Amino acid sequence: MSRVLAFDFGASTGRAILGEYENGRLSYREIHRFDNELVTENGKLCWNFPYLLSEVKKAIEMANDVDSLAFDTWGVDYGIIGEDGEIKGLPVCYRDTRTKNAPEKIFEKISPERLYALTGNQIMNINTLFQLSVEDKDGDMFLFMPDLFVYALCSVKSAEQTIASTSQMLDLEKVCWQKEAFALSGKSEKMLPPIVKSASMAGEYNGIKVIKVAGHDTQCAVCAMPETDGETPAFLSCGTWSLIGCENDLPILTKKSMEDELSNELGANGKINYLKNISGLWLIQEIRRNFRKEGKEYSYNDMEQLARREKAFGFFINPDDEIFASPENMPEKIRDFCKRTGQGIPETDGALVRCIYESLAMKYRFAIEQIEENTGKKFDVLHLLGGGTKDSFLCQMTADSLNIPVTAGPTEATALGNIMLQLIALGDLESVEAGRKLLASSETLKTYNPQNASEFSAAYDKFKTVITK
């Protein structure tokens, strides 16, 4: 039996999942969960790394005798290692406002088209390049968040390739740092960590092998997409962020792809994950938190039931409008957006929640149409992976909006991808493809077929009008 410990960090919680693999059978269970709350340091929103590391060590003790462990997290953020080997301060969160005007300053030196052709990343002010360009800390090296945890346990300084591909600084075809892009940060090249492949050994911690899996949680989730023989599949990794896309052999670096705000990232299997970043369940999580501040203790099911009772397609937002990127005042922001775009004002809590759900489902269709146009593919199924699989309301709306079946599962796709890649590093599985076959035969999946596609199509033009105002 191989026993592996997968640490899966999201924007609001961290989890430790224990996987056990023996005789072709995989079982897994959550052994520890902890909050991941932002703190403030020097006026910036930051991740409380010392606290998170203490929870990691607590989980390792709870797991008791594992063969290996590995980390996956969100993309783009990093910590800086000082000349003395210490981590300098707290890693700054991508939701901090420090990079608000950073892209404009970079584009005084390079055109957006050139930067996109060099790196293939959707140009977002949160990307590592823009963060480094306004970084006020210097040091020996920067490390992405999953790599920072590895460093804290076994002092190994390297960058796993999938997390590096979120940075706007990687040459996707050669899988090396794109020096022309990095130079725009104004930082010394000595800060660049060496790049390593997914499913590679990093070091040891108290006799436990520390493995670099796909450090970017999206790529872990895509690893766990069940086998898709005979399909032309798209994927949607749905959690705090929604990342919707498909696997390609080569990056698409055209001006149209850039203008459509599509991104090329490396997958753990060497494929290019061609995708769009969309604000996801963050909107639902944040409005629930805002409701609580108002004394309304809604569960997620309560919110869904409120939404179901509201009129369909009454209001739309653009989930990716910059006003929704920061915490606080989500109900007011939605009302303001709707008023500003001439839709009136959603008066009830249910109308606010339904607006979020329908807008997400419509934005998924908008993204899929762009991806199909840029790739020439026509998708016949969407694999919905991750926490969003628990939300049957969103799953059905997505099937209706896209007018194709949605296969939901695995719910624990990110943790399972992490576990799979550890098992590949340990020699228990041959490849990502072998892991996908294993999951296709062992995981419970649910298919949502379109039921109200014509109603969604009729409302889609209204949505497109709203998001382009």
Q: What does this entry look like structurally?
A:
This protein has 17 helices and 21 strands. With 469 residues, it is α/β, with parallel strands linked by helices. Strands 17-18-16-15-19-20-21 form a 7-stranded mixed β-sheet, with helices on both faces. It is globular. The model has no long low-confidence stretch (mean pLDDT 96).
Quaternary state reads single chain
What's the total helix number? Answer: 17
Q: Looking across the biggest beta sheet, what order are the strands in?
A: 17-18-16-15-19-20-21
Shape summary: globular
Q: For the CA atoms, what is the radius of gyration?
A: 21 Å
Low-confidence stretches at least 5 residues in length (pLDDT < 50)?
none
**What fraction, in percent, of the residue positions are helical?**
25-40%
Average pLDDT confidence is: 96
Proportion of residues in β-strands? 15-25%
Count of distinct strands: 21
The N- and C-terminal alpha carbons lie at a distance of: 57 Å
Task: Summarize this entry quickly.
The protein is α/β, with parallel strands linked by helices. Helix content is 37%, strand content 23%.
